[in-house]
Design a protein that fits this description.
Layout lengths: L8 H17 L4 E6 L2 E7 L8 E5 L2 E7 L1 H21 L7 H18 L6 E9 L2 E7 L5 E4 L2 E4 L3 H11 L6 H16 L8 E7 L7 E4 L1 H20 L1
Antiparallel strand pairs: 1-2, 1-8, 2-9, 3-4, 4-5, 5-6, 6-7, 9-10
Length: 236
Protein backbone atom coordinates (compact mmCIF):
# COMPACT_ATOMS: atom_id res chain seq x y z
CA UNK A 1 0.00 0.00 0.00
CA UNK A 2 1.58 3.31 -1.07
CA UNK A 3 2.15 5.83 1.69
CA UNK A 4 0.88 9.37 1.32
CA UNK A 5 3.48 12.08 1.84
CA UNK A 6 3.11 13.97 5.11
CA UNK A 7 2.15 17.64 4.90
CA UNK A 8 1.98 19.64 8.11
CA UNK A 9 -1.31 21.43 8.89
CA UNK A 10 0.50 24.79 8.73
CA UNK A 11 1.84 24.07 5.24
CA UNK A 12 -1.53 22.78 4.05
CA UNK A 13 -3.25 25.98 5.22
CA UNK A 14 -0.55 28.12 3.62
CA UNK A 15 -0.88 26.29 0.31
CA UNK A 16 -4.66 26.73 0.35
CA UNK A 17 -4.36 30.43 1.16
CA UNK A 18 -1.81 30.99 -1.63
CA UNK A 19 -4.04 29.13 -4.07
CA UNK A 20 -7.12 31.17 -3.16
CA UNK A 21 -5.29 34.51 -3.21
CA UNK A 22 -3.81 33.76 -6.63
CA UNK A 23 -7.24 33.04 -8.08
CA UNK A 24 -8.81 36.15 -6.53
CA UNK A 25 -5.98 38.42 -7.70
CA UNK A 26 -6.78 37.55 -11.32
CA UNK A 27 -10.26 39.07 -10.97
CA UNK A 28 -11.15 42.70 -11.67
CA UNK A 29 -11.48 44.81 -8.54
CA UNK A 30 -14.73 46.01 -6.98
CA UNK A 31 -14.87 49.18 -4.89
CA UNK A 32 -17.47 50.12 -2.27
CA UNK A 33 -17.75 53.78 -1.28
CA UNK A 34 -20.22 55.26 1.21
CA UNK A 35 -21.95 58.47 0.12
CA UNK A 36 -24.54 60.78 1.68
CA UNK A 37 -27.47 58.61 0.57
CA UNK A 38 -26.06 55.11 1.06
CA UNK A 39 -23.30 53.04 -0.52
CA UNK A 40 -22.07 52.68 -4.10
CA UNK A 41 -20.36 49.63 -5.62
CA UNK A 42 -18.15 50.18 -8.66
CA UNK A 43 -16.35 47.42 -10.52
CA UNK A 44 -14.78 46.82 -13.89
CA UNK A 45 -16.93 44.27 -15.70
CA UNK A 46 -17.07 44.08 -19.51
CA UNK A 47 -19.98 41.62 -19.35
CA UNK A 48 -23.53 43.00 -19.47
CA UNK A 49 -25.11 39.77 -18.22
CA UNK A 50 -22.76 38.24 -15.62
CA UNK A 51 -23.08 40.51 -12.59
CA UNK A 52 -20.61 40.95 -9.74
CA UNK A 53 -22.94 43.24 -7.75
CA UNK A 54 -26.45 42.17 -6.76
CA UNK A 55 -29.37 42.73 -4.43
CA UNK A 56 -29.79 40.20 -1.63
CA UNK A 57 -32.74 41.64 0.30
CA UNK A 58 -34.64 44.87 0.89
CA UNK A 59 -31.68 46.92 2.20
CA UNK A 60 -28.81 44.47 1.67
CA UNK A 61 -26.44 44.21 -1.31
CA UNK A 62 -23.66 41.83 -2.26
CA UNK A 63 -20.49 42.20 -4.33
CA UNK A 64 -17.81 39.64 -5.13
CA UNK A 65 -14.62 38.96 -7.04
CA UNK A 66 -13.03 35.66 -7.98
CA UNK A 67 -14.53 32.62 -9.70
CA UNK A 68 -17.95 33.54 -11.01
CA UNK A 69 -19.56 30.12 -10.54
CA UNK A 70 -18.45 30.03 -6.90
CA UNK A 71 -19.62 33.46 -5.85
CA UNK A 72 -22.87 33.04 -7.81
CA UNK A 73 -23.51 29.90 -5.76
CA UNK A 74 -22.95 31.92 -2.58
CA UNK A 75 -25.15 34.79 -3.80
CA UNK A 76 -28.09 32.46 -4.46
CA UNK A 77 -27.62 30.76 -1.09
CA UNK A 78 -27.67 34.18 0.61
CA UNK A 79 -30.93 35.15 -1.12
CA UNK A 80 -32.56 31.89 -0.05
CA UNK A 81 -31.36 32.33 3.54
CA UNK A 82 -32.64 35.91 3.68
CA UNK A 83 -36.01 34.99 2.13
CA UNK A 84 -36.50 32.11 4.56
CA UNK A 85 -35.69 34.22 7.62
CA UNK A 86 -37.85 37.10 6.44
CA UNK A 87 -40.77 34.72 5.86
CA UNK A 88 -40.41 32.88 9.18
CA UNK A 89 -39.93 36.00 11.33
CA UNK A 90 -40.11 39.54 9.93
CA UNK A 91 -38.37 41.39 7.12
CA UNK A 92 -36.66 43.64 9.68
CA UNK A 93 -34.99 40.58 11.21
CA UNK A 94 -32.90 40.01 8.08
CA UNK A 95 -29.61 41.84 8.68
CA UNK A 96 -26.37 42.27 6.81
CA UNK A 97 -24.37 41.17 9.84
CA UNK A 98 -26.21 37.84 10.07
CA UNK A 99 -25.75 37.25 6.35
CA UNK A 100 -22.05 38.16 6.52
CA UNK A 101 -21.59 35.75 9.43
CA UNK A 102 -23.30 32.99 7.43
CA UNK A 103 -20.97 33.61 4.47
CA UNK A 104 -17.96 33.64 6.79
CA UNK A 105 -19.00 30.30 8.29
CA UNK A 106 -19.48 28.74 4.83
CA UNK A 107 -16.14 30.00 3.50
CA UNK A 108 -14.30 29.09 6.70
CA UNK A 109 -15.72 25.59 6.69
CA UNK A 110 -14.77 25.05 3.06
CA UNK A 111 -11.27 26.42 3.65
CA UNK A 112 -10.67 24.11 6.61
CA UNK A 113 -12.39 20.93 5.50
CA UNK A 114 -12.32 20.89 1.69
CA UNK A 115 -9.38 20.02 -0.54
CA UNK A 116 -9.93 23.19 -2.59
CA UNK A 117 -10.98 26.49 -0.98
CA UNK A 118 -13.37 28.99 -2.56
CA UNK A 119 -11.53 31.46 -4.79
CA UNK A 120 -13.75 34.37 -3.81
CA UNK A 121 -13.77 37.55 -1.76
CA UNK A 122 -17.10 39.09 -0.74
CA UNK A 123 -18.63 42.37 0.37
CA UNK A 124 -22.00 42.63 2.12
CA UNK A 125 -23.53 46.08 2.66
CA UNK A 126 -26.63 47.13 4.55
CA UNK A 127 -28.45 50.43 4.96
CA UNK A 128 -28.85 50.73 8.74
CA UNK A 129 -30.69 53.86 9.81
CA UNK A 130 -28.62 56.89 8.86
CA UNK A 131 -25.47 54.85 8.29
CA UNK A 132 -24.03 52.02 6.24
CA UNK A 133 -22.70 48.71 7.51
CA UNK A 134 -20.05 47.21 5.24
CA UNK A 135 -18.66 43.71 5.82
CA UNK A 136 -15.60 42.27 4.06
CA UNK A 137 -15.37 38.46 3.98
CA UNK A 138 -12.19 36.69 2.86
CA UNK A 139 -11.73 33.26 1.26
CA UNK A 140 -10.83 31.68 4.64
CA UNK A 141 -13.89 32.97 6.47
CA UNK A 142 -12.16 35.97 8.04
CA UNK A 143 -14.61 38.85 8.41
CA UNK A 144 -14.17 42.52 9.15
CA UNK A 145 -16.32 45.62 9.11
CA UNK A 146 -15.10 48.54 7.02
CA UNK A 147 -15.59 52.27 7.45
CA UNK A 148 -16.34 54.47 4.48
CA UNK A 149 -14.73 52.51 1.66
CA UNK A 150 -13.00 49.28 0.68
CA UNK A 151 -11.68 47.58 -2.46
CA UNK A 152 -11.44 43.84 -3.08
CA UNK A 153 -9.72 41.68 -5.69
CA UNK A 154 -7.22 42.61 -8.38
CA UNK A 155 -5.32 45.77 -7.39
CA UNK A 156 -7.20 46.23 -4.10
CA UNK A 157 -4.19 47.39 -2.08
CA UNK A 158 -3.27 50.16 -4.52
CA UNK A 159 -6.92 51.20 -4.88
CA UNK A 160 -7.39 51.45 -1.11
CA UNK A 161 -4.34 53.71 -0.89
CA UNK A 162 -5.84 56.07 -3.46
CA UNK A 163 -9.25 56.01 -1.79
CA UNK A 164 -7.68 57.05 1.51
CA UNK A 165 -6.73 60.33 -0.16
CA UNK A 166 -9.94 60.81 -2.15
CA UNK A 167 -12.64 59.73 0.30
CA UNK A 168 -14.60 62.36 2.21
CA UNK A 169 -17.63 61.66 4.42
CA UNK A 170 -20.86 63.07 2.98
CA UNK A 171 -19.91 62.87 -0.69
CA UNK A 172 -22.69 62.83 -3.27
CA UNK A 173 -23.32 59.71 -5.32
CA UNK A 174 -21.63 61.22 -8.38
CA UNK A 175 -18.60 62.24 -6.32
CA UNK A 176 -18.36 58.73 -4.89
CA UNK A 177 -18.50 57.29 -8.42
CA UNK A 178 -15.83 59.69 -9.67
CA UNK A 179 -13.54 58.88 -6.73
CA UNK A 180 -13.98 55.14 -7.20
CA UNK A 181 -13.33 55.32 -10.94
CA UNK A 182 -10.23 57.50 -10.45
CA UNK A 183 -8.88 55.01 -7.90
CA UNK A 184 -9.48 52.11 -10.29
CA UNK A 185 -7.83 53.93 -13.20
CA UNK A 186 -4.87 55.03 -11.09
CA UNK A 187 -4.23 51.57 -9.69
CA UNK A 188 -4.58 49.82 -13.06
CA UNK A 189 -2.65 52.58 -14.88
CA UNK A 190 -5.02 52.50 -17.85
CA UNK A 191 -8.27 54.08 -18.92
CA UNK A 192 -11.54 52.36 -17.97
CA UNK A 193 -14.55 53.65 -19.90
CA UNK A 194 -18.06 53.95 -18.50
CA UNK A 195 -19.19 51.05 -20.69
CA UNK A 196 -16.82 48.73 -18.82
CA UNK A 197 -18.05 49.71 -15.36
CA UNK A 198 -20.73 47.90 -13.40
CA UNK A 199 -22.24 50.39 -10.95
CA UNK A 200 -24.94 49.63 -8.39
CA UNK A 201 -25.68 50.31 -4.75
CA UNK A 202 -28.11 51.04 -1.96
CA UNK A 203 -29.94 54.34 -1.48
CA UNK A 204 -31.82 54.93 1.78
CA UNK A 205 -34.16 57.40 0.07
CA UNK A 206 -35.75 54.72 -2.10
CA UNK A 207 -38.78 52.68 -1.05
CA UNK A 208 -38.70 49.33 0.73
CA UNK A 209 -36.14 47.97 -1.71
CA UNK A 210 -33.05 50.16 -1.51
CA UNK A 211 -31.05 48.56 -4.33
CA UNK A 212 -30.46 50.39 -7.61
CA UNK A 213 -28.36 49.83 -10.71
CA UNK A 214 -26.94 52.57 -12.96
CA UNK A 215 -27.06 52.26 -16.74
CA UNK A 216 -23.90 52.93 -18.79
CA UNK A 217 -25.47 56.21 -19.98
CA UNK A 218 -26.09 57.33 -16.39
CA UNK A 219 -22.54 56.34 -15.42
CA UNK A 220 -21.09 58.31 -18.36
CA UNK A 221 -23.18 61.35 -17.42
CA UNK A 222 -22.02 61.21 -13.78
CA UNK A 223 -18.37 60.89 -14.83
CA UNK A 224 -18.51 63.68 -17.42
CA UNK A 225 -17.67 66.60 -15.04
CA UNK A 226 -14.55 64.84 -13.75
CA UNK A 227 -13.43 64.02 -17.30
CA UNK A 228 -14.01 67.60 -18.43
CA UNK A 229 -11.95 68.89 -15.49
CA UNK A 230 -9.13 66.46 -16.31
CA UNK A 231 -9.15 67.58 -19.95
CA UNK A 232 -9.03 71.24 -18.91
CA UNK A 233 -6.01 70.59 -16.67
CA UNK A 234 -4.25 68.74 -19.51
CA UNK A 235 -4.80 71.71 -21.86
CA UNK A 236 -3.22 74.23 -19.50
Amino acid sequence: MPMMPYVSPEQAMKDKADYARKGISRGKSVVAVAYDGGVLFVGENPSTTLRKISEIYDRIAFAAVGKYNEFEQLRVAGIRLADAKGYQYAREDVTGRALANAYAAALGGAFTESFKPFEVELLVAEIAGDGVELYHILYDGSIGDEEGFVAIGGSAEAINERLKEAFRPGMSRDQALQSARQALVGAEDRQIGAERLEVAGLDRNRGRRKFFRMTPAAVASALAPAEDEASARADR
